[in-house]
């Protein structure tokens, strides 16, 4: 059965949408694997992955099947009841990680909101109301709610919304001495991204995360890892904490967890989870059967030795070619990241011009990302085919060539 749709164009965005985004000039309408087609039928290679979300590309048969099957059963029952997909996905996450308990929500911001509230609640219950301070990193990103944007270390996102939530301190990332100087017995949590995503695709040093773990233990503070962007196979391990061998007390996941369907999760231990007793925290849609059915299919595909090994191999394929392009055209100072979260730091001559690379790539039928003004970011599907990597990088090189010769 075909449905008649009114024709819409990019210009409609400027008429009907709140202007907090500035989307590209074309509208993607269909995707298959790592290829996308726009309204005009133009084909693009997708290296953006919906900002590290489309972990299995577009229209992956396993995800389409899971969603379709569940859509014919039950969409929503509320948390007055539980549901089978949520319980199955929770079991799979618990079995695969340090965690004993899972809280489902709809986004990374909500997963972090739950994580930060839980950290404060645990400290309040165990040590009293004075232990509420949170330490996070400068240039970190943890979401857009008032609490999460306050914990995030980017004032450009948190300024101008009235009084900020108090008790939050920011210290430089990868600087253990600064963290040591800031932490005290009033600290309830240290919040870190194992790889800073929006802050420029910056992996943590191993000694930094190990030191953070030790400091938290010394001060009865919880170590919270925001793995919204780095998790679900993106690093070549199921979660990046496994790459480092440093275990957090609380972990947040979203983005790739649903492969494009909105879902978030906070993972923690039984001991900490008990502080979220009945009624302490909640969400209408969290644990939604549709989202959890898709998340379960994502887990089944991603958490396999073949796919995770493939991520590491594809990282090397990307890195070798990007280093060659960087050297040939003098555009990159460093290629960094883990797995298929890759950042190309722009050389001095090109600093501040990441948007130019985004625009040039689009002109050459390629979707990429930036991470701030100084870093070009790639976050493709974890199962992107080598042929698509090569074709996309050919297009990227043509874009860079055109940009440097302009």
TrEMBL record:
Binding, N(2)-acetyl-L-ornithine: 144, 283
Q: Which GO terms of the molecular function aspect are on file?
A: identical protein binding; N2-acetyl-L-ornithine:2-oxoglutarate 5-aminotransferase activity; pyridoxal phosphate binding
Query: What general EC class does the enzyme of this chain belong to?
Result: transferase
GO:BP terms for this protein?
L-arginine biosynthetic process
What is the first-listed, main subcellular location in coarse terms?
cytoplasm
Please give the organism: Pseudomonas eucalypticola
**Alphabetical keyword list:** Amino-acid biosynthesis, Aminotransferase, Arginine biosynthesis, Cytoplasm, Pyridoxal phosphate, Transferase
Q: Which family does it belong to?
A: Belongs to the class-III pyridoxal-phosphate-dependent aminotransferase family. ArgD subfamily.
Q: What is the lineage of its organism?
A: Bacteria, Pseudomonadati, Pseudomonadota, Gammaproteobacteria, Pseudomonadales
Other facts: May also have succinyldiaminopimelate aminotransferase activity, thus carrying out the corresponding step in lysine biosynthesis.
Keyword Transferase among UniProt keywords: yes
The record's InterPro entries line, in alphabetical order, gives: Ac/SucOrn_transaminase_bac (IPR017652), AcOrn/SuccOrn_fam (IPR004636), Aminotrans_3 (IPR005814), Aminotrans_3_PPA_site (IPR049704), Class-III_PLP-dep_AT (IPR050103), PyrdxlP-dep_Trfase (IPR015424), PyrdxlP-dep_Trfase_major (IPR015421), PyrdxlP-dep_Trfase_small (IPR015422)
- UniProt key word Amino-acid biosynthesis: yes
Q: State the source organism's domain of life.
A: Bacteria
How is the quaternary structure described?
A: Homodimer.
**Pathway involvement?**
Amino-acid biosynthesis; L-arginine biosynthesis; N(2)-acetyl-L-ornithine from L-glutamate: step 4/4
Q: Indicate which residues the UniProt annotation says bind pyridoxal 5'-phosphate.
A: 108-109, 141, 226-229, 284
* Stated name of the protein: Acetylornithine aminotransferase
Q: Which residues carry this modification: N6-(pyridoxal phosphate)lysine?
A: 255
Cofactors named for this entry: pyridoxal 5'-phosphate
CC annotations in GO: cytoplasm
* EC number(s) from the headed UniProt entry: 2.6.1.11
The record ties this protein, via NCBIfam families, to: arg_catab_astC, argD, PRK01278.1, PRK05093.1, PRK12381.1
Locations listed in the record: Cytoplasm
Please list the reactions this protein catalyses: N(2)-acetyl-L-ornithine + 2-oxoglutarate = N-acetyl-L-glutamate 5-semialdehyde + L-glutamate
